[in-house]
Amino acid sequence: MTEMTTADTQSDATNPVNPLERRIDISVSLAEIDGEISARLKKIARTVKMPGFRPGKVPMSLVAQNYGGQARSEAVGMAVESILEATLKEQNLRMAGYPNIQPVADAGEGKLGFTATFEVYPQIILGDVSGQSIERPALAVTDAEVDQTLDVLRKQRVIYNETDRPAQKDDRVVIDFVGRKEGVEFPGGKADDHSMVVGAGAMLPDFEQALEGVKAGDKKTFDVKFPDDYQAKDLAGSIVQFDILVKKVEAAQLPELDAEFAKTLGSADGDVAAMRAEVRANLEREVKKRLEAKVKQQVMDALLAVNPLDVPKALVEAESKQMADAMLRDMESRGMAMKGIPIEPAWFADKAMRRVKLGLLLTEVVKTNDLYAKPEQVRAVVDEFSASFEDPKEVVRWYYSQPQRLAEAEALAVENNVVQWVLSKVTVSEKSVAFDELMGNAA
Question: What b-and-e string marks burial along 161-183, b requiring 16 or more CB atoms within 10 Å of the CB?
Fold first, then answer.
């Protein structure tokens, strides 16, 4: 179809901020489009059904009247798509997202004109990471960390008993509340029979602090300041007023560290020593995972530092939407009523930008240095995943019977290869890290 098209690819001079944007001017011969429309209508006519006519006997005038618009749209769309695909292939361009195709008013006699504007993937020339430095955090699990973890597990199995005394830290309260900004209720600022633990960090600090000292039956009004970087932009930095009614105060009672407690953790015979050993093994796996995650983050930072990269806006927008949708699903799965509470993709733009950049960089690093995962590396990841389960062999079988799950393990194995490759290039030093800091418990 070469005689029906012309295409010219160029950067959009009116948008220098986006160096990845390209524009293709396309012209399509009306004569060939009309021929394609005619061919499509004849094909439709062979099977179309209309009242009063047998299949295949519907007059072409009626077929054209009813299906002409569809045939024309399909013919033009196919022609434009064909030209666009051929031009991208010829100029070795990879389009990111979908093109914005607009008609051109005057394309010349006997022609239809269009402009296709789109973004392309960047060309990546990997930078040298050898000048970067990485601190490898180190932490050995001792009895002190095991004891601290057991305390956390006890708190997770806390029993609450209703009390008449004033609420204090770690107590659970049941309240009705309504929040108002400048006298007007705002979305997500109202709940009835809301249960929360004082000082657990589930609510803003001002809100939780106001609950210390309240008793059942109390009514209270207080101000709460939202952080300047709060995700809901209409509330960020605002001071709002809450009215609460305290329905119940419950004091926390921790279980004893005994055989009964051991049974709640899966020890059939209540062996406290065996329970401690199991807790230590799980804790060592968790510490190892977190230490590796801190190293991986530094590796990714190092790659970003030496590879400044423009990325397609379309990819960032798509990633932002996925992150927003994931947060919505997560909050709904936790039983939160999210109707009317906006979760805007724009809130995730910075994180989405980082993810997209790293995705492009890792793909290039893996391809350039042949860091694809080997079967034994994937199996090692699966074995590590399954180690904490009661029947690891069954978990392994499950992974290998689920292509999507196995693909996740393969992706992690590839990331591990990238991490090891970067560590072999950079300067690595070791630094001890505190348990609370590593586990995210630091005040």
Answer: eebeeebeeebbbbbebebeeee
| Backbone conformation region of residue 217, classed left if phi is above 0, alpha if psi is from -120 to 50, else beta | left
* 396 φ/ψ angles, rounded to the nearest 5 degrees: -60, -45
Strand partners, 242: 179, 222
Rounded Cα–Cα distance for residues 348 and 107 (Å): 41
CATH topology of domain 2-120: Alpha-Beta Plaits (3.30.70)
Q: What are 184-241's pLDDT values in tens digits?
A: 999 889 999 999 999 988 899 999 999 999 999 999 999 999 999 998 888 999 999 9
The residue assigned the tokens 């499509």 is 40
3-state secondary structure 204-270: CHHHHHHHCCCCCCCEEEEEEECCCCCCCCCCCCCEEEEEEEEEEEEEEECCCCCHHHHHHCCCCCC
CATH number for the domain formed by residue range(s) 133-144+279-439? 1.10.3120.10
Structure tokens at 195: 């249960």
pTM above 0.85, yes or no: no
The CA distance from 19 to 119, in Å, is 9
Neighbour tally for 222: CB within 10 Å: 13
Report pLDDT digits (tens) over 379-422. 999 999 898 888 999 999 999 999 999 999 999 999 999 999 99
| Residue entry with tokens 């093109």 | 99
Question: What are the sequence ranges of the domains in the chain?
Answer: 2-120, 133-144+279-439, 158-253
CA atoms of 208 and 226, how far apart (whole Å): 13
158-253 to CATH, choices 3.40.50.620, 3.10.50.40, 3.40.190.10, 3.30.70.330: 3.10.50.40
